[in-house]
Request: fold
Amino acid sequence: MRVSPMFLTGFSLVLVWGLIALAAPLLATHDPYAIDFEAILQAPGPAHWFGTDNVGRDTYSRVVFGARLALYIGLLGVIAPMLIGMTIGLLAGYFGGWVDTLAMRLLDITVPFPFFVLVLAIVAVLGPGIENYFIALALVGWVGYARLARAEAVVLRQAEFVLAARTMGFSHGYILLRHVLPNALSPIVVYMMTDVTLVILFGAALGFLGMGVSPPAAEWGVMIAEGQSYIATAWWISFFPGLAMVALGVGFALIGDGLARMLRIER
Amino acid sequence: MKLRMTLAATAAMAVLATGLAAQDTIRIASPNQVTVLDPIISAAAGNIEAYGQLYARLLRKDADGTLQPGLAESWTISDDGLTYTFKLREAQFSDGTEITAEDAAFSLNRVSKDENSAYPAGFAPVKEFTALDDKTLQLTLEHPSAPMLSNLEIFNAGIVSKDDVETRGEAAFTTDPVASGPYMVREWKPNDRLSLTANPHFWREGLPKIANVELIEVSDDNARATMAMAGEIDVNRGVPWAQVAEVDGTEGVSVRLEPSTVLYLVMPNHSKPPFDNLTVRKAAAMALNREAITKAVTLGNATVANSTLSNALNFHDPNVQPPAYDPEGARKLLQEAGLEGTEVTLMITPSAEQIATLLKAQWDAVGLPTTVERVDAGLWWSKLADADYQVTTSWYYNETEDPDLAVRWALCGTCGSDSYYTFYNNEEVNALTDAALREQDEAKRAELYSRIQQITLEDLAQIPLYYSPFSNAYSDRVKGLSLTPSLQWTLEEAEISG
Reply:
């Protein structure tokens, strides 16, 4: 398997962000929550590399600490939908029959609503906050994984090694875990990388709308919202968290594309 | 050749005509919605700003704020202060019919007594308005009221046509009500703009000077500022503090900070722990560097508040002060009372995010760990009125320069709004409020209002933050226009040049 340059670029980008998040206290020049009445709306300069916001907090330090939240949201946010979706999809594809019918109807109910609208609606009902965002993601995000896993399982069900395992008398559970799952995993992992990007972006969008992480948290979406009314005069408040979000999002997207390319070559 | 000349002349005339038309229209962009044209139904800012153009009042205010005869050319007040007799002048509605005492009595009884009247507070002492003859209007009161005349000048005291309202009913107010003010409706597109055109029958000869007015609704602050800088609008109502310098620096546009009665304040809920406790209120006040907050939020464009009443109101007392900034003292106060670590929930709407961040940081620092609860404006009002909050932050303004209505709204516990729903209820203040309303002697009234300000600051009925001026941007083509503290555009005497 040749490692694609796309994957490498993406991986390095994400790795750098990971290191930034880990070393945030060392890299930050200021306390990201410290209010400074003497330094309100200062432009980027030697004292504040990315300038300060409307209560005098250091934008650079907040962007650095924001990497922690972004990665936390992105990586944790995809786990539940993936597990749920994968389980439903594998079971549906492998067993077929009424299990499949039930799973597909459940999917039909979820699919017609635009993804973000449904997430927004659920968060609006449950109340703002990161936990509720995760719950909403679990309820809505499983659909993509379920489709992929089902498609794989339908094919694998007929594969010779699965049929062989069946005739040897192995249980369904054993076959699913040892033979079907490992072979269905690659498209799911590729999809997960794209999903991480989406989850980070939607998380920030929720923060921007005041329905995600609450201020004064150093979260990129929240920061962009805080800078919104100063966009014409103090552009740096929104610009730098926006830039950070693009850099991290591109990183995960490249990993996803690179992986897809590599796996296709192998197949 | 002749044909060509004619063509050229026609083209030139066409250009001239459009040029003239444009000069004759003033475009005012405001974030405040116009939602209803009936002057008694709403007390929302966008409507208040429009009512003034459509309906003339018995009195009017001149540029320096003194009361002048309006539709009433003269009046007498009986010695006991209970009967007012107004002599109305010869004047017509926009449909050419005579404005009679009957119309005035109808309009003013409506605002005083109608159950749909949104803001009848200023007319509470009214017993009745009666038309004695075509041009004589009599007002009788239950008890004397010092600010009665100035209350007859506010936005909802406009005179509407009795005939029109009785024949067309509410329908009149949804399209093109018969107007008595300087302008009448040309076209109204709700959520977009209200287009007005000069009322040819307006009682002041030769006014208004500007033929057409467009009140345009633009909710986004940045969009409005950009439109003002690009010359797409002539007036920008509400320039965000962050953009004052930039807009003002634009060629042909200047930003003016205009006096207002707007007071920003922190509102503790007196009916619930922890803010029912004076020590907590006091510590919360001492924890706040109000000067720094004012500077941070308004970028130095507002004045730090010294009293529970706006400095633009009559009888504002400049010699009172809330507790000074003293975080150590605040912490000690809480420690001595065993209240250190009292948890506080601060309820805000999204627009107060910045103030909330500052309050939280400073309360956290003295031992009042603060949680910020964010709600939308609708929920905010209902929780406020239900006393379902601990502390919040807001602002209010007063329709007149007389402090009576402001005190009733924000400091009196028995005047209908439970001290702006802080449920502060001090019997002495309540009694003083009533005494000050009835007192006819100016010096004595000043003393009474001074006393109210002293008591409410000692009790920390509210923690005043700052007095915020209006910041509006005007094109240099506009002359003589301003926004008064009672939210009225002085359009009738304004001019616009090419």
Notes: The interface with chain B takes residues 33, 35, 37, 40-41, 54-56, 128, 210, 214-216, 226, 229-234 of chain A (CB under 8 Å). The mean pLDDT of chain A is 90. The domain at 5-30+59-263 of chain A is CATH 1.10.3720.10 (MetI-like fold).
